[in-house]
Amino acid sequence: MTDRALAVVRAGALTTVQDRGRPGHAHLGVPRSGALDAPVAALVNRLVGNAPGAAVLETTLNGCDLRPRSTVTVAVGGAPCPVSVDGRPAAWGAPVRVPAGALLSVGTAVSGVRAYVGVSGGVAVEPVLGSRSTDLLSGLGPPPLVDGAILPLGRPTGHHARVDVAAQPAPPAELVLRVVLGPRDDWFTAAAVRVFTTHVYRVSSASNRIGLRTEGPGLERATSGELPSEGMVLGAVQVPPDGRPVVFLADHPTTGGYPVIAVVHPGDLPATAQAAPGTPVRFVPVRRTSP
């Protein structure tokens, strides 16, 4: 039995293994997946001396408790939350040494939604199609963590960062998403497009890794009927029959038949990972730019 492993004492509401995902397989019906807040996942890896693409843990709302079988360095980032080792407060946003057999507790988010736990050596579950990410939609990758699970760890390849605390963006008080209209904005009335780009929506509690759902006025269609299924991209804003926009996130389906009114700027997507239910959402139209 290897000593490079983590025992899951408390899995929390939803904790998954995530890395950079598996882009490039949409033609096979395989979603991208990967960490919703990719910059923070890369940050916690840097803090513990891992390569940016090493697998980390992504927690949801109430964290998790872990017990390493050997001494490891960990870093917790993303949603601000209490961190402790054997009941003693430890740093958030900085490298922390956790002795073999000690209990690392990642607590409930003070704000935001998802915390990221980087561990020296990275989580070394078996990759699927080149990624260790859990995909909730397709079921690829390791299942979400459960109490009692054992996660293998890789061997450390670098030294942890020497910082007191790493600066990170605060969870958004208001989620402002730049969007390029189209390709199906002509399926909606001019009034609906104005509502979409001027009304303040709110994040729905039904949001998940597949999509950020919104609450607010429904968008009136100008065209009846349904589209044939067509390809969907990360950040597509699809409008289902209830008329309320849904922003497709990492585990989104690769095809869909509801019209896409706009696509979110990639640089604005990490903030969606930390937008708690009730957070105001504004869609701000911008011009399409050349690559």
Description of the structure:
It is a single chain. The chain has 291 residues and is mostly beta strands. 7% of the residues lie in helices and 27% in strands. It has helices at residues 38-48, 190-198; strands spanning 5-10, 16-18, 56-58, 64-68, 72-78, 83-85, 88-90, 96-98, 104-106, 115-119, 150-152, 175-181, 201-203, 211-215, 230-231, 236-238, 246-248, 255-256, 260-264, 280-285. The chain has a 7-stranded mixed beta barrel with strand order 12-19-16-17-14-13-20. Strands 7-6-9-4-1-11 form a 6-stranded antiparallel β-sheet, with no helix packed on it. Strand 16 (236-238) and strand 17 form a beta hairpin. The model has no long low-confidence stretch (mean pLDDT 95).
